[in-house]
Design a protein that fits this description.
By secondary structure, the chain is mainly alpha-helical. 70% of the residues lie in helices and 0% in strands. It is built from 3 helices and no strands.
């Protein structure tokens, strides 16, 4: 194998490796948790719902919205 071929092969291999590494998405950031006080506040905001089922569903939706809000930044 000639030296020119060897150098060209190494450069091509390195370029391919760099392109593959650039294609990998960055690691996801860890999720920001909801604090105990935020959970309590969301739970008590659901007190106006007439049934327990509606209160639980409203609470779940409030948690979902809060997590989206805190983790979208």
């Amino acid at each position: 194998m000639s030296e020119e071929y060897s150098v060209g092969y190494s450069e091509g291999y390195q370029a391919g490796w760099n392109a593959a590494m650039d294609a990998i998405p960055p690691a996801a950031q860890p999720a920001v948790p909801i604090t105990e006080s935020e959970i309590e506040k969301m739970w008590f905001q659901q007190a106006d719902f007439p049934t327990a089922g509606q209160r639980i569903v409203g609470f779940a939706r409030a948690i979902e919205a809060k997590l989206k809000e805190k983790n979208s930044d």
